Automatic annotation (TrEMBL), chains A, B:
This is LacI family DNA-binding transcriptional regulator. It comes from Promicromonospora vindobonensis. Gene3D superfamilies: 3.40.50.2300, lambda repressor-like DNA-binding domains. SUPFAM superfamilies: lambda repressor-like DNA-binding domains, Periplasmic binding protein-like I. Signal peptide: none annotated.
Length: 349, 349
């Protein structure tokens, strides 16, 4: 937590080279000061992120029963369910949720953080667009990070347990008799791609199996999912995009492909079908996220992992409420995901 | 506006059959009352949606600089950009946004409305999941309805101009030489399906053209988009799902299909390709919404209409801010959409 690092009026005074009482006058707009002095103080306060509201520094004394939901996401794909889950739990606790969306703009985020502090929120939940760790915010009230954890191990964060999700998938695939499993990730540098890969390799290893071929990384698009199928299986027989004649021959040494997202897996299913391969009879396919727009529309519908993002938002709200009531948590809590089994692994038999 | 219909303490007293002072005692939990009386008053207050906060009825005197964003949506597909746009404009106006999501649950919505009133928000923006008109909320502060208009013509609503969007599409298709245009809608009873159909027919009629075949309605899924292609063109030649041999023959009397959403159009493109028809050379395709997950992932990418939902949210916030400052608007404002041209209509030549 950054509770010790609140900016004080004396810090602003030091930076502006004036007395603390001058800072107060300058920011409250009273007293007779030169405009240049006033401007210098305002600039110093702005630079330090100082919140000119005395009551914001004595929060423990009283509560606003309002919590800030700070989201860095614009698309909302992942953060929206987290925000909804948090809002749901907050309402249950008779708290209101102030929404603040920063859209990956640090200046906007700073502005929002200051506005939330000035509003004297009891605490803040910070959500992100990916599970990449992020810099903590500096505020004088409890904060819980949801989905994107804080880089500070002393902060409280709730994240989806990706390793557990991948274990569920491997258990399921191996139970269904699959042994030659390939992996297609999204962006190579992202935790969502890497944790899923590492867990897959470890789980296969513990069963005396190994990954079929090298892991493949690209981006998070359906297009990459389609292209990756050709890289996993080798060029399609005959003309590009045409149906293969020989049935199972096209799948080579692979009987399952684990994709790191539903979007990838959906593109993969499309490409496998175009190559004349039957999913899952010849190649089983798994996704990740249970984003229903993808997982249900896929042909066939996808076996995938539901990260339980609403539950994750609820849990973040519970941790925040506990912290507000004097019971702060520390460290990263990993929330168990849920396996969702559909036709892409079930087979006809 | 429902400003005249605020529930007063006397209304609660009348329904409960007690004196107004008894209502006050019962709801504030003081005075000596029988528990049955207290329960009867609480029930009456609950039924009428009475807000037991005197200051909520004298809002004009002071402002909280907080606005409620009430969303009935859980998926967030349409309401999320509206909420983001509104939040953006509110922040610019130095207002904070209290988020309240009701998820199509009237009880939850009632609870949220009461909580927002108790919080003394300066105004409320109500967003919906569809453009179907909705019942107004009854609160003692300004309200603007965004995306889903209020059924009360005296309320202020901002909605996307679907007729204008369809005119843009027809202009574009006719310019590209298309004359035999079919229509595939979503759910038959919804404004989004019907307004788009009616405008399409009227626009074609004004050019001496008519719709190719009857309009088709189903749901909003890709699956329906695929199936609708077979209904428009007749059963595929040869085995189901096989490639047609004769090129253009398969398209029959249709040279364009207007789908009422990107999801439908994406399914349509998939099915046209499976039937061996080239999009747009043989059949041009248009979508609606510019939901990029669909419109960009479609093969080929979709020509579509962007309803400008963020702009719509911003506009709702502007109208609300004006109303809070004493300049309320009345009636439905239609926001002009934007044509987005991509490969599904452009052709190769």
């Amino acid at each position: 937590m950054e509770r010790g690092s609140v900016v004080r009026i004396t810090d602003v005074a030091a930076l502006a080279g004036v007395a603390p009482s001058t800072v107060s006058k300058a920011l409250n707009g009273n007293g007779s000061l030169r405009e240049s002095t006033r401007a210098r103080v305002r600039e110093a306060a702005e630079r330090l992120g100082f919140v000119p509201d005395a009551s914001a520094r004595s929060l423990s004394a009283r509560r606003s029963f309002t919590v800030g939901l700070l989201s860095t996401d614009s698309a909302g794909r992942f953060s929206l369910p987290v925000v909804l889950g948090a809002e749901n739990a907050l309402v249950g606790g008779e708290l209101s949720a102030l929404l603040a969306t920063a859209r990956h703009d640090p200046v906007r985020e700073q502005h929002h953080v200051r506005a939330l502090v000035a509003r004297r929120v009891d605490g803040i939940i910070v959500t992100g667009r990916t599970t990449e760790p992020r810099e903590p915010i500096r505020v004088p009230m409890p904060v819980v990070y949801a989905f994107a954890p804080s880089t500070d191990p002393d902060d409280a964060s709730v994240v989806p347990d990706d390793a557990a999700g991948m274990r569920l998938l491997v258990d399921h695939l191996v139970e269904r008799g699959r042994r030659r499993i390939a992996y297609v990730g999204g962006r190579a540098e992202q935790a969502a791609s890497l944790v899923r890969h590492d867990t897959l390799v470890a789980e296969l290893g513990s069963r005396g199996l190994q990954l079929a071929g090298p892991p493949l990384y690209g981006d998070w698009s359906e297009q990459w999912g389609r292209r990756a199928v050709d890289l996993v299986l080798g060029p399609a027989g005959g003309s590009a995009g045409g149906r293969s004649e020989g049935g199972a021959g096209g799948a080579g040494d692979v009987d399952a492909i684990v994709f790191a997202s539903d979007q990838l897996a959906r593109g993969g299913c499309d490409r496998l079908r175009e190559r004349g391969l039957r999913v899952p009879d010849e190649v089983a396919v798994t996704g990740y996220d249970d984003w229903e727009v993808m997982s249900l529309a896929s042909r066939p519908p996808l076996t995938t992992v539901d990260m339980q993002l609403e539950r994750l938002g609820q849990r973040a709200a519970e941790l925040l409420i506990a912290a507000i009531e004097g019971e702060p948590a520390r460290g990263v809590e990993r929330l168990a995901p849920r396996l969702v089994v559909r036709a892409s692994t079930l087979g006809d038999g």
